[in-house]
Write a structure and sequence with these properties.
Layout lengths: L5 E6 L8 E6 L7 H11 L3 E6 L9 E5 L4 E2 L5
Length: 77
């Protein structure tokens, strides 16, 4: 698995370091679900998101969301 650029962002709070840290992998093209899970486990954050090209022509992107233990079908925040 090659190195992937990612950002750690602070979500759900307007105050820095008061929100929920979340990893965003900017280009997850070519990663398997197993590799995404391994990456999410490595970050040890509550959620890690993986941005992918859309499969729907109406969409701008596709996202997969993983915790350190499993993939989430949807983040219902």
């Amino acid at each position: 698995m090659r190195t992937r650029p990612y950002s750690e962002v602070d979500v759900f709070s307007p105050t820095p370091y008061r929100g929920n840290p979340l990893a965003v992998v900017h280009d997850a093209t070519g990663l398997t679900a197993q590799e995404m899970q391994r990456f999410a486990t490595w970050t040890n954050l509550s959620e890690t998101t993986f941005l992918l090209p859309p499969t729907d022509p109406e969409a701008d992107y596709r996202v997969r969301i993983f915790t350190a233990r499993q993939e989430l079908p949807f983040a219902g925040h």
